[in-house]
Amino acid sequence: MPNLKDIKRRIHSVESTMQITKAMELVASSKFRRAKERAEASQPFFEQTYKLMAEIAAEDPYFDSQYVHKRVEHGAVLLIVIAGDRGLAGGFNSNVFKIAQARIDEVQSYGGNPIVVPIGQKAVDYFARRDVKVLRSYDHVAEHASIYLGMDIADLVLNTYKRHESLQSVEIVFTNYVSPISQVAQCMNVIPLTRMPGTNPRHCAVEYEPSPEAVFDKLVPQYVAGLVYGAIVESFASEQAARRTAMENATDNATEMIDKLSLQYNRARQGAITQELTEIVGGANALE
Amino acid sequence: MNLFHFMIVTPDKTLFDGDVQEVIARTTEGDVGILAGHIRYAAILPSGALTVKLENGDSRQAAIAGGVIKVSDTRTVVMSTAAEWAEDIDPDWAERSRQDALAKIEAAKDEPDRLERANLKLQRALNRLAVSGHNTGTLGSHKKK
Questions:
Q1: Mind listing the pLDDT tens digit for each residue in A51-71?
Q2: pLDDT tens-digit readout, B106-136
Q3: Which stretches does DSSP call E strand in A127-196?
């Protein structure tokens, strides 16, 4: 028969854990709502910028920009990895690292040099423990991210790309928000813009001022900034959604556990009372 | 007057989405006025003012922090890193960011990269002050060309 006091203590401990998971669930769902609005608001800007770029690139088949063509095969790869600042979000962080690590292994297998820009405390910690070159890290930026953060990173990435001919591509690993219960980590190409689908190569007869190249070169940083910003806000929304689901499950499990322990406790209590009665009756009988 | 579809999009919001009579924008090449039926056109916008003549004939002014304008057959879109309507600009905040930008320029004197960014920040702050109709102070002459 389990000890009454021990069971009581376990119930208390599970209860206090449940209080924490419950609170985290509430915080995550309120943050999630705001983050989702922000992620949705960033969509039109990105779509329009991308559409215009695709149009310019499609208009001229001989269009030549260093951002459009592949420069080297099997060169270095710059990877922007976006994870969370905190844990306790189910598989959110580890899914991101799985995708990023797979890409890093692939690059290393053909002798390429992977370089990472980690965003989020967890990503910074992850790459600090590994043998990968870190260009610059950003932590605790996702919650209050603005387009200027995106521009900052775009500047860094584009300057690096311009300066190093051996850099094959820039890619970004982030978590795509599909639905409140489904978030998918994925790796996406940023530059070069090898394939720009959406428009057919045809002559659109657009007048560009001062020139198509100038407009395009102005658009590239804006596009990269928009993409990075969009990926950060989307990952943040995914993180909150993942945390909410994880904490909801934890709270449910705690409730179940408390039910089970309460049953055990009551059974033990009942058993103790029955035993006491038996002893009293037994004692009384013995006196007669 | 003929109307056409116009949008102002920024990464954090869609500032405007609707039909307008005319849009006047300041590009790097000079001011352009866009009416319905304009040819396909794209140009770079430095930080500056943008005037929109609405369906009912009223004019509204917005501060654009720099971006691109694009005219296609069906609609005209301004893509900017930030945009606000003149009446929504908080002059105190714009003034604070002007001071902040000046401090940053001072601090970044020897670093061309940071200096350029601080200059852009100053331009944005001055642009906001100018569009909101407030005094741009001693640096008024630095307003973009």
A1: 877 777 776 655 667 777 777
A2: 887 777 777 877 888 888 888 888 887 765 4
A3: 133-134, 167-179, 182-191
Write out chain B residues lying below 8 Å of A52, CB-based: 42, 68, 70, 77, 79
Distance from CA of B70 to the nearest CA of A (A): 8
Q: What are the extents of the domains in chain B? A: 4-87, 91-142
At the second CATH level, the architecture of A25-246 is 3-Layer(aba) Sandwich (3.40)
Q: Is the predicted pLDDT of residue A93 greater than 50, yes or no?
A: yes
CB contact (8 A) between residue A207 and residue B41: yes
Pairwise CA distance, residues A44 & A50, whole Å: 10
Alpha-carbon dihedral angle through residues A189, A194, A195, A200, given to the nearest 10 degrees:
150
pTM of the entire structure?
0.82
Q: Which CATH superfamily is domain B4-87 in?
A: F0F1 ATP synthase delta/epsilon subunit, N-terminal (2.60.15.10)
Pairwise CB contact (< 8 Å): B7 & A204: no
